[in-house]
Write a structure and sequence with these properties.
Elements lengths: L24 E6 L2 E6 L3 H4 L5 E5 L1 E3 L3 E5 L5 E11 L3 H5 L5 E8 L8 E6 L7 E10 L5 E7 L6 H8 L16 H4 L7 E4 L11 H9 L3 E8 L21 E6 H13 L3 E4 L1 H17 L14 E3 L14 H14 L4 E6 L14 E5 L6 H10 L2 H11 L10 E5 L10
Parallel strand pairs: 1-18, 3-12, 3-14, 4-11, 14-17, 15-16
Antiparallel strand pairs: 1-2, 5-6, 6-7, 7-10, 8-9, 9-10, 12-13, 13-16, 17-18
Helix pairs in contact: 6-8, 7-8
Length: 416
């Protein structure tokens, strides 16, 4: 991992977003060449017929802070649903729910029970009842939530009582502006505890101009977990326990991806989350090509993908076009129209992405699994890219600037 470290000065971390989303800088890397642009120029930079694949997840108000009777503060950080286990079912539930949570100051919270009251003008006060159940692997806890107003869903309660969970490296609490700016303009499906930040640069105007430039747009869902901020603490990647994230992809989106691969026109992932989702589909397609893809439940599939699935010898290294076709056929045979995946897939140098021609992404932390994805796309040139960005005043991390990186491992269309 020492090979994927670099010095990131604190002043280069973007603490706040720009006034206008699409005014961020955009670094383009293509065939070893780097050029500087602004994000609003994206429609002019992409070839006609390009397909952009974006993540429509929406960030939930996952941070709940409250004070105990002894005046000590506790923070509960909601990670993922346990009962019900699906994000949509849990967030829409008007009944008690159980979540996996991190608890800041858990040693101060000896009783395991707390009540958080919110006074609502012109309405009855809302009380949230919180019960710590047990400790889980990895340092998280099972936590039960119930609330006093049965008309509200759990998602609505979180909006009222919780806070937007900004990344820890921003070093500040969420402010009013973050309610909208830490969401993409196309965010729809609640479930993330961190934004898919590559999408934060898009505006309705840029989306309209992409459409006018004959570029297609498709969406999937990956609910970003807190593990995305977890650095690789070992000397080598093989000792790292990759975080798991939930993915949903509609079969019609897979058909559109298959058609794009067949055409040979550029397939561009908006962010590392979209790329991880797409590569997970490719790995499942490899298994489907030799009838080794097993759905957990017929018509409600949840497939678990190991972090080293790309290195598995259980399936051949088929071309992406054939793999996606096999995945579609497997879903059609079981009348499944939505693929649900719990993925731990690692993308890194030596196991590069096979599907995407390019990725739109921000600039990532040193020694992170996200930086490994960039190195997998661009090879050793990642160092040249990041040195250029640092020298030219680019802003880094979640609220920072953007890059359009073309995949060195593919011989598909390149810009001139």
């Amino acid at each position: 991992m020492d090979a994927y470290d670099y010095a990131l000065p604190d002043e280069r971390i973007a603490r706040y977003p720009l006034e206008e989303r699409d005014q961020s800088k955009l670094l383009q890397y293509d065939a070893g060449k780097i050029s500087d642009h602004h994000f609003h120029e994206l429609p002019e930079l992409l070839p006609a017929g390009s397909l952009l694949l974006a993540n429509r997840t929406r960030v939930i108000h996952a941070r709940i802070r409250f004070q105990l009777p002894n005046e000590k503060w506790i923070e509960v950080f909601c990670l993922a649903p346990l009962q019900p286990a699906e994000h949509q079912l849990s967030l829409s539930s008007q009944e008690p729910v159980r979540w996996s949570c991190l608890i800041g100051g858990n040693r101060k919270w000896k009783s395991g029970h707390a009540e958080l009251k919110l006074e609502r003008p012109a309405q009855e006060s809302l009380t949230l009842f919180i019960d710590r159940v047990d400790r889980r692997e990895g340092g998280s806890f099972s936590v039960d939530f119930r609330w006093s107003d049965p008309r509200l869903s759990w998602g609505e309660v979180l909006v009222l009582i919780g806070q937007i969970p900004l990344p820890p490296y921003l070093g500040r609490d969420a402010e009013t502006k973050d309610q909208t700016r830490y969401q993409t303009v196309f965010a729809k499906q609640q479930g993330s505890v961190a934004a898919p930040t590559a999408g934060l640069h898009f505006t309705p105007n840029v989306l309209e101009r992409l459409k006018a430039a004959d570029c297609q747009w498709a969406e999937l869902v990956l609910h970003v977990g807190a593990g995305t901020f977890k650095p690789v603490s070992r000397d080598t990647l093989d000792g790292h326990d990759m975080h798991q994230e939930y993915v949903e992809v509609q079969i019609d989106v897979l058909r559109l991806i298959h058609k794009q691969l067949e055409s040979g026109k550029p397939l561009i992932c908006v962010g590392t989350t979209s790329l991880r989702s797409l590569e997970s589909c490719y790995q499942l397609g490899r298994l489907a090509s030799v009838d080794k893809l097993k759905f957990e439940q017929e018509k409600s599939p949840v497939v678990y993908l190991d972090q080293w699935a790309a290195l598995s010898n259980l399936a051949p290294n088929v071309e992406p076009l054939s793999a996606i076709k096999s995945l579609i056929s497997a879903m059609e045979s079981q009348e499944i129209d939505m693929l649900r995946v719990q993925t731990k897939l690692i993308i890194a140098p030596g196991i590069p992405p096979a599907t995407a021609d390019a990725i739109l992404t921000n600039f990532h932390q040193p020694r992170s699994t996200l930086l490994l994805i960039i190195a997998a796309m661009t090879g050793e040139d990642w160092k040249k890219i990041y040195a250029h960005a640092l020298n030219r005043g680019y802003r880094f991390l979640s609220y920072g600037d953007s890059s359009l990186l073309w995949n060195k491992n593919k011989s598909g269309p390149k810009l001139t």
